[in-house]
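To whoever is covering the structure queue this week,

Two jobs came back overnight. Logging them here so there's a record in the thread.

Job A:
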Amino acid sequence: MATATSPRGMLTLAELCAELQISRSTFYDWRAKGRSPRCLKLPNGDLRIRRADLDRWLSALEETL
């Protein structure tokens, strides 16, 4: 799902939070605890999440249930 703000299958933090229906603070809590999907930090400090990394992360969560 590439958009003008998220080329090549990359999600912005806002898009990720909207998709997972979580708050930004929840995401940062998960990230601090090492429980979030893998992120890329851009030179301007913004985070991006690859769609493939999100899908892999979600699949791993399903396997643990």
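Job B:
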Amino acid sequence: METETALKVLSALGHESRLAAFRILVQAGPDGLPVGELRERLDIPAATLTAHLNVLRAAALVTDQREGRVIRVRAHYAQMDSLIGYLTDNCCGGLADCGPTRTCAPAPRKKKASP
């Protein structure tokens, strides 16, 4: 990750509601959440959530997908891992047993049962 990208990502997470939304989406796993459910959990107006999601989307921290009338939002784990890697690059002067070594690898999506 380049410094400019890291600054954009950190700036996007530098607001209480955006950080809360991103953390909820990380906890939700690879299936993400419908925007309406995310809005309910955050207890903020829909227009405010839309603005916050636009900032997170511009920083490549979330993706969304339309499913009929519902928009599902998902955390972009690779971008999160890239930021963590950027922040910990050369941690402790390059010592092998230093700093975090785990990346986020969400469980695979559940397959829908066939009728």
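Note for Job B: The first strand starts at residue 33 and ends at 34.

Please reply-all if you pick these up so we don't duplicate work.
Q.
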